[in-house]
TrEMBL record:
This is Type 2A phosphatase activator TIP41. GO terms for biological process: TOR signaling. GO terms for cellular component: cytosol. Pfam families: TIP41. Transmembrane segments: none annotated. Belongs to the TIP41 family. It comes from the Eukaryota.
Amino acid sequence: MASAVMVPVHNLSESPNTRTIEIFDWSITASASPISNAAECDALQAALGFPLPEMTFGSNRLELEHRPSGWKYVFGTEQALKGVKNGELGEGDGGVKVGYADAWLQSRTDPNSQLPLPKTVPTKPYDWTYTTTYAGHSEGASSSEVAWKEENLENTAHGIPIAELTRPDPILFYAEIPLFEDELHDNGASHLLVRIRVMPTCIFILSRFILRVDNVLFRTYDTRIYHSFSSSPPLLVRECSGWEAPYDRVKRVRGMSFTAARLGMFLT
């Protein structure tokens, strides 16, 4: 029989749309607000230079702060959308074409369109699937103090311990933070969701972008971040990976559900 895991001292706080846990040297805040209003969309679209996804959660954010150093690692909507290709897509950009993509794009960029878009509507092309390889970004302490390094395959601390994450340890903090979602004008779906759970021994974050273009393809891009509270000096492990598969191949799998979790498992 497995021994019980000791629950460390931690503090939880909550306010409208925001939840925070303070544990060891870390402060973690999850902000999950409703879809951005018209004024917020106007400002964000002007900053990005292309039409926003149908459901944009511009104020949503996950912030992981190491209090002694002031270093922060953040997942936020604006930075995620900055990873979307803005302009003509060339070879290697991952562009996706459907039967009436040009007409669809025109409907999203035409100032005379009946769609409720902000007034500052650009007329240039962009990646209409909103594919992004955004893996979060750093704030706070300078990069000379905190920096990502290549994995040392001989160092077991540089991997994510699946066995630890699958143990039935108590979950002290859990949050889901949607950043954006779009139904691609009934051609499929594109969305980015960040999840975090804090357990007595560690922090685990999964950011997952999922794209489904009907009759064309499925695509995912995952960022996993793991931190063990016992690591000294503090160490965060980040794994980024992406997969793509033809739509028909996924659809042929008997009983396959198109949920994000099952799709990620299948493409893996």
